[in-house]
Design a protein that fits this description.
Elements: E1 7-10, H1 17-27, E2 30-34, H2 53-58, E3 61-62, H3 75-91, E4 95-100, H4 123-131
Parallel strand pairs: 1-4, 2-3, 2-4
Helix pairs in contact: 1-4
Length: about 140
């Protein structure tokens, strides 16, 4: 199976991933897919850092609030749903943007500063400051 081109936005909690993902959607023909295992559940809003209603209106996130906590939903179910979302987004001529929290990353380690403490730099803010130099892509040739 060949996979469509995609953007993977990965980083630590509270680093600006959601803000950056929404800004990328403003500049590129992207649609966001959440790869956060806690965000799939409806009603589990505390402690999950789910996008706000305003953020979801601006840039909808797929695979957020898709099932109840009492339902069984496996990694295989998620894989199926994520691949289906990627195919739908690609068929619409857009690019899937997968937003991945740190606990879903295989290495799950925060970078360390020179002093050995976890880095808390906001990489999202640094990239957002550079986006104004780019013009939005319309998807047309």
């Amino acid at each position: 199976m060949s996979l469509p081109p995609a953007i993977f936005l990965m980083g630590p909690t509270a680093s600006g991933k959601t803000d950056l993902a929404m800004a990328l959607c403003d500049h590129l023909p992207c649609e966001i897919i959440s790869v956060d295992s806690a965000m799939i559940y409806r009603g589990m809003d505390i402690g999950t850092a789910k996008p706000t209603a305003e953020e979801l209106a601006r840039a909808p996130h797929r695979l957020v609030d898709i099932c109840d906590p009492a339902e069984t939903y496996s990694a295989a179910d998620f894989r199926r749903d994520a691949l289906a979302a990627m195919a739908e987004i690609t068929a619409a001529g857009r690019v899937p943007l997968l937003e991945v929290p740190p606990f879903e990353l295989p290495w799950n380690k925060r970078p360390k500063s020179e002093a050995g403490r976890p880095c808390t730099r906001n990489f999202g803010a640094a990239i957002l400051s550079q986006l104004s130099a780019f013009t939005p892509i319309t998807g047309s040739a």
